[in-house]
Design goal:
Shape: globular
Strand order of the largest sheet: 1-2
Low-confidence stretches: none
Oligomer: single chain
Helix content: 40-55%
Number of strands: 2
Number of helices: 5
Strand content: 5-15%
Largest sheet: 2 strands, parallel
Length: about 90
């Protein structure tokens, strides 16, 4: 990621903390999942990033929903494959 993003790469604080999706966790423990979602969203917003990249489809949906709730509609959430496809030079 760092090699592709270059100088615009930003480390996410507490990147190792769950977003609250964790399989069916957001269904079985909705209150805790919402707290984790809010924490992840706040950390993302603190970075000022315009794009968030994840490898997990569940996280993608959870983070996207959290950003929408926060009114951060200008922050895009992408799967790593989509980000790399978009970043790869045409004909490269």
């Amino acid at each position: 990621m760092r090699a592709v993003a270059g100088p615009s790469f930003v480390d996410l604080p507490e990147s190792d903390v769950c977003c609250g999706s964790a399989g069916s966790y957001n269904l079985t423990e909705p209150e805790m999942a919402e707290r984790l979602q809010r924490r992840k969203t706040e950390n993302i917003l603190k970075t000022g990033a315009h794009i968030v990249v994840t490898t997990n489809p569940g996280c993608l949906l959870q983070i996207r929903a959290g950003l929408r709730k926060a009114g951060a509609n200008d922050v895009e959430v992408l799967h790593i494959a989509d980000y790399l496809d978009r970043s790869w030079p045409v004909g490269g």
